[in-house]
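Help needed: design a sequence for this.
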């Protein structure tokens, strides 16, 4: 996999492009083995954000690369250019390993490379990718997905994770760790992008449950049941479930669990409370229960989350 081609065209995101260029464009000083031969392929010139880029070759040269990298696509509401989609598809058919960074997954999906495959993209656009390409199994929680010849990454910094993963596959963990040290980033991050997703309350204020949401949030330390919520909303449990699905897009218990997890995240970020105390404050009961649900929902244990997201105000 020694030749790497960056597939670029107008409308690419410069951060993801720069990440790939930095990692594959030059070997760290400590690496003595042959490094990648990198080229930039696209119509000339290419507008990338506020930068003007002169590609080395046209898009037709993608088919000769061992690995093709598709950086993020800036406007996901607009279909990517047909010549880019066709060139990426042709490269894969010729045997290239194709990887997308962030919203570059929309290019791979348009080329049909993700049909029947698991994939990811930035969490803010996973629903759109699912709606537009229903044959793709979109996973919103992971940092990247490796299908062998087709790989996709989540948003922004996850481009680093996927590029380092490719280096690890090609050159081994030791060299990937060396590259990560040069970039001053961890060689591998625990968990997935779920830990970076903000979970807001439903925005509508004119629905029958408008008063119920703040009432429940003030009582997250209580063992609330569906019956408790229905009684407060003055409706049957069945009606409550129907309204919850139409307004919040989930069940009452699932919504409660999400709010408990979110409250736990806030406490981990801003206080020195023990995991046991946070479990009690969020209605989880025990630290073991909190750790189980937190790890499942966020992708990392509470202690790891606190080390990553601890705010300066929360430190003593």
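Sure. Designed sequence:
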């Amino acid at each position: 996999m020694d030749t790497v081609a960056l597939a670029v065209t107008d409308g690419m995101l410069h951060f993801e492009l720069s990440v790939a260029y930095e990692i594959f464009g030059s070997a760290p000083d400590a690496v003595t083995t042959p490094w990648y031969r990198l080229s930039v392929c696209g119509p000339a010139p290419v507008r990338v954000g506020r930068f003007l880029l002169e590609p080395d070759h046209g898009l037709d040269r993608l088919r000769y690369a061992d690995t093709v990298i598709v950086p993020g696509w800036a406007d996901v509401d607009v279909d990517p250019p047909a010549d880019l989609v066709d060139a990426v598809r042709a490269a894969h058919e010729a045997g290239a390993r194709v990887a997308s960074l962030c919203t570059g997954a929309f290019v791979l999906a348009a080329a049909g490379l993700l049909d029947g495959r698991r994939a990811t993209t930035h969490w803010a656009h996973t629903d759109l990718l699912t709606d537009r390409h229903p044959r793709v199994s979109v996973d919103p929680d992971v940092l990247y997905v490796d299908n062998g010849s087709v790989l996709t990454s989540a948003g922004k910094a996850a481009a680093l994770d996927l590029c380092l993963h490719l280096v690890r596959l090609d050159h081994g963990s030791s060299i990937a760790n060396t590259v990560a040290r040069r970039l001053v980033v961890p060689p591998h991050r625990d968990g997935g992008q779920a830990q970076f997703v903000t979970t807001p309350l439903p925005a509508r204020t004119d629905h029958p449950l408008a008063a119920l949401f703040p009432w429940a949030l003030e009582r997250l330390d209580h063992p609330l049941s569906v019956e408790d919520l229905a009684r407060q909303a003055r409706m049957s449990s069945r009606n409550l479930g129907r309204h919850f699905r139409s307004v919040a897009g989930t069940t009452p218990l699932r919504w409660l669990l999400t709010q408990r997890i979110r409250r736990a995240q806030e406490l981990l970020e801003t206080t020195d409370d023990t995991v046991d105390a946070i479990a009690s404050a969020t209605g989880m009961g025990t630290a073991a229960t909190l750790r189980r649900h937190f790890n499942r929902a966020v992708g990392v244990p509470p202690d790891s989350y606190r080390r990553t997201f601890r705010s300066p105000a929360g430190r003593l």
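The chain has a mean pLDDT of 86.
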